[in-house]
Amino acid sequence: MYPHFIEVVKEISRMHTVGICTNLSIGAKEITDNFDPCRVDLSISFHPHFSKLDDMLDKLNLLKSFHWPMKLMAVGWPPLIKDLDNYREIFKEFDFSVLPFWGQYNQKNYPMDYTEEEHYSVNRYIAKRESKDFKTDPTRVKGRTCRAGQVYAHIEPDGRVLRCSAGGEQISNNFYDDNFSFLNNPRLCNSEYCRCLEWVVCE
């Protein structure tokens, strides 16, 4: 989808450590052939409706043989919740965890409309970010002071820079501009909820 993705990450990782979220559609061998496990960290998403279980296990085991640091995550989409215990057992060697589902399903809005049982099932394996648990009962952040855009930003492929991935406002003309800069100070959040835990930097 992104031209020269492998080459770009390979060059950036010579200067910085890089985190990639991937469903491994590019293939595990392309990763092991081009990247250094000490420089590139993987967050791997498993989508059972689009990925065969045996194929995913083969890829994970190849990465494991190269001692690759990785986390494996699935989304707590309502039709999958009944299978989470089974996936946890299958992927027990790969730091398996679950992200709450954000979106609509059967005319319900999630994660707000998770049932009590669904809350329990997802929270058993809930993923973390910076030691903080993701939430199935979202935290309202609108109007809170947040450092997103000051110490963190979300950069779109076209170079637009947003304060965060939850629809935060644009903070600069473009990442590729010579005068690009982050915000100097924290600002109030304009998103109702935080989906991706940038709220961990809220004051």
Walk me through this protein's architecture.
With 203 residues, the chain is an alpha/beta fold. The protein contains five helices and 13 strands. The relative contact order is 0.10.
Distance between the termini: 37 Å
Q: Sketch the topology as an H/E string, one letter per element.
A: HEHEHEHEEEHEEEEEEE
Strand order of the main beta sheet, please?
A: 1-2-3-4
Mean of pLDDT: 89
Gyration radius, rounded: 18 Å
| Number of β-strand runs | 13
Give a quick account of the main beta sheet: strands, pairing sense, barrel closure. Answer: 4 strands, parallel
Dominant shape: globular
Give the oligomeric state: single chain
β-strand percent reads 15-25%
By DSSP (H or I, 4+ residues per run), the number of helices equals 5
Features:
203 residues; alpha/beta; four-stranded parallel β-sheet; 5 helices; 13 strands
A few lines on this structure:
The chain has 203 residues and is an alpha/beta fold.
Indicate the topology:
Elements: H1 5-12, E1 18-22, H2 28-34, E2 40-45, H3 53-65, E3 70-76, H4 84-90, E4 96-100, E5 103-105, E6 108-110, H5 116-123, E7 128-129, E8 132-133, E9 145-146, E10 154-155, E11 161-162, E12 170-172, E13 187-188
Helix pairs in contact: 2-3
